[in-house]
Amino acid sequence: MDNLHLDQHISQQFNTDLEELKTQLLEMGGVVEQQIIDAVKAIENADGSLAEKVLITEDEIDKREVQLDEQATMVLARRQPAASDLRMVMAVIKVTRDLERMGDEAQKIAKMAIALNEDGEAPRGYVELRHLGTSVQKMVNATLDAFARFDVNTAVQVAHDDRNVDREYKTAMRELVTYMMEDPRSISRVMNIMWALRSLERIGDHARNIAEHIIYLVKGLDVRHTPVKEIERQIQDA
């Protein structure tokens, strides 16, 4: 595990400000993680009430995003941080944005759950949804854990996992397209599942983004749009 040693400050309040940013971010991440879990369950169980809960929770996530942005901006303005402190604040701002977008995707999944509850279950796609949902939920949990511990190794593993999620998503989509061609009557309902799968894939992308922010935070390396093997090489050389 790579531990980030934030600069020590004469002002104890500065240390408190940074720790508060981290705590608030992880709390927001926990809310988003549960939102994703609930959204997938809402489709699997045709649970309209649970889907509505996800929609309501999205308002809380939006408020948390605004609050964290305001807190981070105040730290930048008051403390003018440098080096690892500056990377910490910038990482919080970027991770917050990705978490909010995860929440948006969970909201889309919940809307698909409501549509399926009203129009009738889809004949196919639930197994694929469950598998992809489990994979993505593990990625989100791992990124939050990596941020909490400033763990670069876990962040790199999330980048690996994102490639597996992409492959799993493409396979599921091909199978569902084939099924719809064989049974055109199923198209509208299966499309709801496909849109949910798409949202899960996007959540996986945001989890990888967060993993890249963690690597930047700890190592000072910008690894956006970089293949995983190259990321591992750069970390070893850093």
Short descriptors:
238 residues; mainly alpha; Methane Monooxygenase Hydroxylase, Chain G, domain 1
Report on the structure:
The chain is mostly helical and 238 residues long. The chain has one domain (12-237): Phosphate transport system protein phou homolog 2, domain 2 (Methane Monooxygenase Hydroxylase, Chain G, domain 1, Up-down Bundle), CATH 1.20.58.220. The chain contains 7 helices and no strands. The model has no long low-confidence stretch (mean pLDDT 92).
Layout of helices and strands, plus pairs?
Layout: H1 12-44, H2 48-79, H3 83-119, H4 126-149, H5 152-182, H6 187-219, H7 228-237
In short:
84% of the residues lie in helices and 0% in strands. It is mainly α and 238 residues long.
What value does the Rg take, in angstroms? Answer: 19 Å
- Reported by name, the CATH topology is Methane Monooxygenase Hydroxylase, Chain G, domain 1
Q: How many discrete domains? A: 1
**Low-pLDDT stretches:** none
Largest sheet: none
**CATH superfamily (homologous) name:** Phosphate transport system protein phou homolog 2, domain 2
Can you count the beta strands? 0
InterPro entries: PhoU, PhoU-like_sf, PhoU_dom
GO biological process, one term: intracellular phosphate ion homeostasis
Protein name: Phosphate-specific transport system accessory protein PhoU
Organism: Exilibacterium tricleocarpae
